[in-house]
Automatic annotation (TrEMBL):
<keyword id="KW-0560">Oxidoreductase</keyword>
<keyword id="KW-0432">Leucine biosynthesis</keyword>
<keyword id="KW-0464">Manganese</keyword>
<protein>
    <recommendedName>
        <fullName>3-isopropylmalate dehydrogenase</fullName>
        <ecNumber>1.1.1.85</ecNumber>
    </recommendedName>
</protein>
<feature type="site" description="Important for catalysis">
    <location>
        <position position="141"/>
    </location>
</feature>
<feature type="site" description="Important for catalysis">
    <location>
        <position position="186"/>
    </location>
</feature>
<dbReference type="Pfam" id="PF00180">
    <property type="entry name" value="Iso_dh"/>
</dbReference>
<keyword id="KW-0028">Amino-acid biosynthesis</keyword>
<comment type="subunit">
    <text>Homodimer.</text>
</comment>
<dbReference type="GO" id="GO:0009098">
    <property type="term" value="P:L-leucine biosynthetic process"/>
</dbReference>
<feature type="binding site">
    <location>
        <begin position="277"/>
        <end position="289"/>
    </location>
    <ligand>
        <name>NAD(+)</name>
    </ligand>
</feature>
<dbReference type="GO" id="GO:0051287">
    <property type="term" value="F:NAD binding"/>
</dbReference>
<feature type="binding site">
    <location>
        <begin position="76"/>
        <end position="89"/>
    </location>
    <ligand>
        <name>NAD(+)</name>
    </ligand>
</feature>
<feature type="domain" description="Isopropylmalate dehydrogenase-like">
    <location>
        <begin position="4"/>
        <end position="346"/>
    </location>
</feature>
<dbReference type="InterPro" id="IPR024084">
    <property type="entry name" value="IsoPropMal-DH-like_dom"/>
</dbReference>
<feature type="binding site">
    <location>
        <position position="243"/>
    </location>
    <ligand>
        <name>Mg(2+)</name>
    </ligand>
</feature>
<keyword id="KW-0479">Metal-binding</keyword>
Amino acid sequence: MKSTIALLPGDGIGPEVCVQARALIDAVATRFNHDFAIEEALIGGAAIDAHADPLPPATVAVCERADAVLLGAVGGPKWSDPNARVRPEQGLLKLRATLGVFANLRPVKPHPVAAKYSPLKPKLLNGVDLLFVRELTGGVYFGEKRREGDVAFDACRYSVQEVERVTRKAALLARGRSGKITHVDKANVLETSRLWRSTVTRVLRDEFPDIALEHVLVDAMAMHLLTKPAEFDVILTENLFGDILTDEASVLGGSMGLLPSASLGDGKAGLYEPIHGSAPDIAGRGIANPYATLLSVALLLRHSLGLDREAVAVEAAVSDALDARVLTRDLTRRNAVSTAEAGAWVVRRLAE
Ligand SMILES: NC(=O)C1=CN([C@@H]2O[C@H](COP(=O)(O)OP(=O)(O)OC[C@H]3O[C@@H](n4cnc5c(N)ncnc54)[C@H](O)[C@@H]3O)[C@@H](O)[C@H]2O)C=CC1
Ligand SMILES: CC(C)CC(=O)C(=O)O
Ligand SMILES: [Mg+2]
């Protein structure tokens, strides 16, 4: 089978982890006899430097003709001047909107070895298996932004249709799991949250009566995630809350460098990326954890290319690496391996 994968390394540690992902994709092709064409393109700060545009038309063209897009990360201090006209993050937001990937899936299932490095008590982590479904193309990240003198505005906007489609995605995913959705909002204060709450309730009542639903306010959820994470399964929420809660949830698994994501829409290519950013504090040192990006490759194989056996093989190889304590510096200071060593270990395992 011939498939095309667009690879957008981006900035900071993005290129470092994407080199490992590229080697892994090649290894999957060899072991399972597939023909994957990888097309690289610029995004974020790298694209601003080259073309004064964080998402150049050439990059959009590469993504639109691909079967799936794999992204490293964008951003960094070089492009973070508050008065800058263009910012790397705008490129990523525009790409998500262009691809129409409204549902961002962020699984959090702590690996027993990595979880030892979590500050949480092991007892609390027993049985934790979460799937965040974060709305990705609406809300405050995409609302009107403006300044009036000393005052700044960021509008948060959601339509019923935007909430309906991501709720249906979450419900279908919940059916294959425990059949329960926790919807997280701030309905005691926000009008958009009240629209979310009534829409989620109606869609599940009318179309998915087999799915159990609870609503939890986001401030309380921030606490529950650290005090009783095993009590949740599918967590459905809007863009900003999902962004924040998933960084928090990375603490359960021991590191930001372990969480992958899949962003899906109703057509076009899916977008796959680690949940972390460009980590400027460690960029260029060869110490970033590549596993979140390698696990994003697994999600890409499963969701966009329909290659479940290959996805399982990649996930098993990363899990074996953790079992064998092939750990980067974010997880251990003793015998830490480099980004390249961790990536090569997984590639070797997959090839066996
Ligand atoms: N999807 C994307 O491209 C995202 C981009 N960003 C951008 O990244 C830049 C840096 O943002 P930060 O707030 O520092 O968040 P960050 O996620 O880049 O880093 C937060 C902390 O986690 C560590 N970390 C992250 N990924 C790691 C990995 N793979 N291995 C080991 N340690 C890792 C970093 O060293 C840092 O201490 C900003 O410009 C931000 O806008 C932030 C989040 C997502
Ligand atoms: C636009 C991104 C920087 C937002 C983000 O942090 C994320 O999607 O995880
Ligand atoms: Mg984030």
